[in-house]
Design brief:
Layout (H helix, E strand, L loop, with lengths): L40 E9 L14 H14 L4 E8 H11 L3 E7 L1 E4 L2 E4 L10 E8 L3 E5 L8 E3 L3 E5 L5 E7 L15 H12 L5 E6 L31 E2 L20 E5 L2 E8 L8 E8 L1
Parallel strand pairs: 1-2, 10-11
Antiparallel strand pairs: 1-15, 2-6, 3-6, 4-5, 4-8, 7-9, 9-10, 11-13, 12-13, 14-15
Length: 301
């Protein structure tokens, strides 16, 4: 794996010791301390579809410990501070939170199956109570975790779109996406929900002055040659380069919006977008999922 950039922080300011000389001193009026600028921070955000749900063809992609270990490795070695996970089982998430230790916060929301509008949580294993879902994990804790409604199939799998605020990272708003894929509605397999979902996601993230949002968008870039589904991307979501409307993507170079593959099939369907200044972007393969890991470093503070 090739990673770009290193994490740098300014050295701590040196204290100055004032020596009081003489037995008697004259009290001096107190003066206001000069304002100290906030410490610059570099926030590394990781997005990964873990392929952790046995019912969805993930039985041969590793154990909960393997998958939790991938995230922990990037926390320890790539300085990841926030993680957006798709297709994660609750037990795997519990294993990961134990490995991360205290000081980390999480928000989990389950996938739901809708049968003609009647919904129930989607299990990781049929007949077992453990739920499948998506998660936001942040070092330093989270606040105001909530889901936002998006257009979903009346019959078929419904994935949450949710966000949480990272207070230590200057209150940046982190959002997790797993968009519907073609064929998700068994009654109408040709119906495409992504155009509505992407427009609704844009409407939500536009409300936040500072945000990082990413995940499995189940869609190739609008600039991929002969992309018959380019229309699902609304104007102003995916920036066309410096000075244009929209959000810059992690692996975007100038006006190019193709980027490196993020799926084992050789296509890019995973993205991280942000309002913040990008420092570097990494894409890393893993034997424990059909999706690659994406990590973006942004400057905050």
């Amino acid at each position: 794996m090739s990673l770009f950039g290193t994490l740098r922080r300014p050295a701590a300011a040196l204290g100055v010791l004032a020596l009081l000389i003489g037995a008697a001193t004259v009290a001096q009026p107190a003066t206001a301390a000069a304002p100290v600028p906030a410490e610059p921070k570099n926030l590394q955000v990781m997005s990964w579809n873990m392929c952790d749900i046995p019912r969805w063809g993930c039985t041969d992609t590793g154990t909960s410990a393997h998958k939790a270990g991938v995230v922990k490795m990037h926390v320890d070695n790539t300085w990841v501070h926030a993680v957006l996970l798709q297709e994660v089982c609750e037990n795997t998430l519990a294993t990961l939170m134990t490995e991360l230790g205290p000081g980390w916060g999480k928000a989990f929301h389950p996938y739901r199956w809708s049968q003609n509008g009647v919904k129930h949580d989607s299990p990781c294993v049929e007949g077992k109570p453990e739920r499948a879902g998506t998660a936001i994990i942040v070092k330093g804790g989270i606040q105001d975790a909530r889901t936002y409604p998006t257009t979903q199939p009346w019959t078929g799998l419904q994935a949450p779109f949710h966000c949480a605020t990272a207070p230590y990272w200057d209150d940046i708003r982190l959002c997790n996406v797993h968009a519907s894929w073609l064929g998700i509605n068994p009654d109408h397999p040709t119906w495409d929900y992504r155009d509505d979902q992407f427009a609704e996601i844009k409407a939500v993230v536009d409300l936040f002055p500072r945000t990082v949002f990413g995940g499995d968008f189940s869609a190739q870039s609008p600039d991929v040659p002969n992309n018959a589904h380019a229309r699902v991307w609304p104007q102003g979501l995916y920036s066309q380069g410096p000075g244009t409307d929209g959000y810059q993507e992690c692996d975007q170079t100038g006006t190019s919006r193709t980027g490196r593959p993020t799926h084992g099939s050789g296509v890019k369907i995973d993205y991280i977008f942000s309002t913040e200044t990008r420092r570097w972007c990494a894409v890393a393969d893993s034997v424990y999922s059909d999706h690659h890991v994406m990590i973006e470093s942004v400057a905050v503070g």
